[in-house]
Amino acid sequence: MQPGGTKGPALDGVGAALTPAQLRLSVVDLSRVTKGTAMPSFHKTSFGTPSPALTAEQIEDVVAYLSTLRK
Fold first, then answer.
1. How many CB atoms lie within 10 A of CB 63?
2. Which tops the pLDDT comparison, 55 or 37?
3. Measured distance CA(62)–CA(41) in Å, rounded
4. Could you tell me which residues are beta bridge partners of residue 48?
């Protein structure tokens, strides 16, 4: 599997299928949800900042948006 890419999963209905906590974990550290994923962590940590990294506020904005995708 090559890192990066231009395609992603369909997000139709993700807000109805997952709770905000599940969405948040998927954004923050998908490797804890999907073992073996090539997706990086998107949250800044005290142990180093992955690139790209989102602030806690930006993650909450993404979760809020994904929660609206109910159909």
1. 21
2. 55
3. 14
4. 45
Q: State the burial class of residue 10 (Cβ atoms within 10 Å of its Cβ: 0-12, 13-18, 19+).
A: exposed
Return the exposure string of 11-40: e unless at least 16 CB atoms fall within 10 Å of the residue's CB, then b: eeebbeebeeeebbebbbbbeeeeeeeebe
Q: Is 61 helix (H, G, I), strand (E, B) or coil?
A: helix
Euclidean distance between CA atoms 35 and 44, whole angstroms: 20
Q: What is the pLDDT of residues 16-35, one digit of tens each?
A: 999 999 999 888 887 777 77
Task: Judge contact between 31 and 41, C-beta under 8 A.
Answer: yes
State how far the Cα of 4 lies from the Cα of 61, in Å rounded to an integer.
22
pLDDT, tens only, 43-53: 666 655 555 68
